[in-house]
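Researcher: I'm preparing a figure for a lab meeting and need a structural model of a single chain. I don't have an experimental structure, so a prediction will have to do for now. The sequence is pasted below. Please return the structure as tokens so I can convert it later.
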Amino acid sequence: MSKDFSSNCEHHVRINTGAKTSSQLAREKLGTLNHDLSERVKELNCLYGISRLFEVKNASIDKTLQSVVNLIPPAWQYPEITCSRIRLKKAEYKTSNFKETDWRQTQKIMVNGRQYGTVEVYYLDRKSESDEGPFLKEERNLLRVIAERLGILIESQIAKVNLESSYKRERDLREKLQIEMNSKVDLTRKLIHELKTPLTSLIATSQLLYDEAKDKRLGKLARYILDGANNMNRRIEELHDVTRGEIGQLKLSLKKVNIVQFLNSILEEVQQLAKQNEMSIELEISEHLPEITVDPDRIHQVMLNLINNAFKYAREGKKVTIRVTEQSGYIVIEVRDYGPGIPLEKQGTLFEPGYQVAYREERSGGLGIGLSLCKLLVGLHGGKIWAKSRVGKGTSFIFTLPVKPSEQ
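Model: Understood. Here is the structure written out token by token.
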């Protein structure tokens, strides 16, 4: 065999050997890609399965977390030797083959910005080194996503439990309050009945005594008794109204009212009282005021309360002004005195039950529910009431009534 022929044969063998190596490399690369793709599919299946678990309504949190644990091992590259565990503050969930080993991958579960637990993956046997010991970096990313979703699930579950607890607490408090209110109403009714029975007899007797008295001194005493009994009767009725108003049982009897005629009739009614208090009362009414729909008896109560307060606490010799205007669909009524006024620190509680408009140092007696009742009655009509006062300059009580009937 010649030397040239031998050289050509060797060259030909080298070419064939090089072609075979390239084919093997291509097959190995394709095998790697198939393996990687298979791993990513397993990861996607795991996430999809977890998402489906989170969509199940009314599933218990324990059952959901146990199912998540069971879905984790099949997503790792060696599922046959993989186990997992979820550890929370007060609970633990793990696969049936769970065992702690040296080959571990773990991720924190964060809830509301704080660590609430961990999700862990273990290999039961040693495997060749990869990105993180025997684990892949893609498995670390998958574990982080699982931990994030578990945090969201636990956070929503805690919010749900807190909401249910708050609802139950609110319901229990509402039931307790209703029982207390019913008890209060029953007690008030009994009290009113016990007071009204002898009071009715006292009013009738004192009225008869006053009518029959020939002696001026005796008649004067009878008048004092009658006035006191009538005053007590009004206080009892106010108490009854406030109690019924608090539980929504106070109803209005609405009628169309000419506000000018209505207030003029009240003015005539209180003129005698103004003289007794050595005061004057003036009525200032804008022209062309429309009719309004109100309960005249209840607004009459409001006006008398405010006028009586003005007479009671303003200085002798002063006047009381009632001013009526229309503004933005409301009738605005102001009852103003020119007395000493109310200190600023006392104005915030004027309309609270039990408060007495003590402009002066001494208390006036009574239950202190007049202004509270005014607020209640005005509110039932869809209006508002407030006070403006300056020490030494007097006080104005102002309330509004809608021209059109309120839906209330």
